[in-house]
Amino acid sequence: MRRKIPESTLPKLNRSQMITSEGFQKLKEEHDHLWRVERPDVTAKVTWAASLGDRSENADYHYNKKRLREIDNRLRYLRKCIDDFKIIDYHPNQARKVSFGAWIEIKNKEKGLQTRLRIVGYEELIGNKDYISMDSPMAKALLDKTVGDEVIVKTKMGDFVWEILKIEYQK
Question: The CATH number of 16-87 is which of 3.40.50.1000, 3.30.70.330, 1.20.1290.10, 1.10.287.180?
Fold first, then answer.
């Protein structure tokens, strides 16, 4: 049997609590979908499977109980996150500098690489391969820089020099 570890003993992650308007909307939609669609559906399946009698060898019952726990855990997490997030919207003063929510086109001359990425909050990374966390070494190096600036990104694999080619914001 698993024992629950008190939250106060868990290490605190130093993640920014910022999120874009679009990211916030997606999290709210996920919460609503889980609460209004998935949870009632899985609850009905658990009720049906439980009505069959012996639960010890009832795969439908065990699978759906597990899925219900996963949904409930995600709902609790989303409720906490949604309350704690600070939505950061674009402001015209940001136009010339890299800041939260920016789309940046950068080039590494040494490796001949060019990429386009967006600086967002941690929760927005899932399913978005061209997004990077506000807390990443790349984002930290790019913040407050302008087009034409070269930035040095320090990583465990070494230092990399990138040139900022373009900065855009979704308005």
Answer: 1.10.287.180
